Amino acid sequence: MKNLVLLTFCLILALFLVLQGPLLGALFLGFLLFSGYALLQGHTPARILAMAWSSIWKVRLLFIVFMLIGMLTGAWRASGTIAYLVSLFSQMIHPAGFLPLAFLANCAVSFLLGSSFATAATMGVVSMNIGLSLGVPPLFTGGAILSGVYFGDRMSPVSTSAMLVCALTGTNIYRNIRSMARSAFAPFLLACAAYLALGLRGSAGGLPAETGLSGLASLYSFSPWLLLPALSILACSFLKVPVRWNMAVSIALASALALWQQGMAPSDLLRSLILGFRSPVPALSSLADGGGMVSMLKVAAIVCLSSSYAGIFEATGLLDGLKGKFEKLAARRGSAPAFAAAGLFSSLIACNQTFAIILTHQFCSRFGLSREKFALALEDSAVILSPLVPWSIACAVVLDATGSQAGAVLFAFYLYLIPLWNLWRGRGL
Does pTM top 0.85 for this prediction? Predict the structure, then answer.
C-alpha cells in the first residue's frame, strides 16, 4: 500500500510536469493523497490537519524571511543596485578568460541576492549574450551560469534554501556558511580550473557592443553609492547580525537610494516593495523587472505544502521503507554516499528544490549526525543536486531564462564536484 501511494504521487508529479501544470496543484493533490492514506490508517481529519500544522509551525519564521527577501529584491531593483552590479561585473569579463569570469560573476551576484532565479535573469542573461558574441558554445556558458547561480543559492545569508535548511535542522546560518565554505573550497577551485581549460578551447572574438547594459544605464542614474545595499549585506554578515535585521538594513538603504538617487516617488517605491519593480521601458523588462513580496508568495506556498507532508509522513510511517534502505546504505558505506543517494532520489521525483530538501531531511533524519553536520549534508546533496535534474524547476527556470539547453547541466562542474569531492574524502560524516 505504501509503495502504491508513493508511486501514485510520482505519477501525479510526472503528469503535471508533462502537461506543464502548476506545481502547487500537484503538491495539493499530493496532500490530499497522503491525507487519504492517513484516513485509511485510522487517523481523524482533525488529527491529520494537526500533523500538517505541526510541520508548518516548525518553519513559520521562514515566511517572514521570505517577505523580507521579496522586499529586498524589489528595493534593489528600484534603486538600481542590481543593474549597477551587473554592469560592473560585465565590464570585468574579457575574452581571454570568459568562462571562469562568467562563473565568478554569477557566483558573486547570486551570493549578494541569494536567489538563483534573480541572478539568472540578470547576470545570467548578460553572460549568455556576451558568450554568444564571443563564439563560446552556449552549452559551456549555460553550465558556467548554472554553477554560478547556485553558488549563492547554497550559501548566501539571504538564500531561501539556506534558510529552509536552518529551519529544518535548528542551526545558525552563519555557522552553516562557514562549514559550506570549507566544504566547497576545493570543488570551487577545481570548477574554476575546469572552466579556464574549457574556455581555452573555444574561440574568442571582441567584446559585444550591445548586451542590454546601455539600456539599463539609461534607465538608472548609476553611482558607486548604489553598492551600499550590497556592502551592508556583507558587513552585517561579517558582524553576524541576525539575518532579518541584516535584510532590513539593506532594504532601508536601497529604498533611500531609490528615492534620492533615482528620484522615485514614494508610492512607486511602496509598489515595488510589495508588487515588484516594473521598468517604464518594456524592452528592459526581462533584465529589470521583478522582486516584491508578492513574488515570494508562490515560494511560501510551496514550502507550506511541502512542509505539511513531513508530519503526515512521520505519523503514518509512509517513508519508513525508503528510510530503512538509506539507513542500510549509510551503515554499509557511510553517511556521505547515503545522503548523495537520498538527495539525488529526492531531486529526481520532487521536481523542485524545496521539496527535495524536505524529502532528503525525512529520509536521513535517523542517521545520528549532529545538527551542523546534518545541515551541511543537506546543502551538499539536495540543494545542489536539484539543479542538475533537467525537469526540476531549479534547473529548467535558469536554463529557460538564459536561453540554455538541457545539455548545459553536463558543464555545471561546481554542482557535481561538491558531492563527488565529499564522496572521495568522506567529509567526516
Answer: no
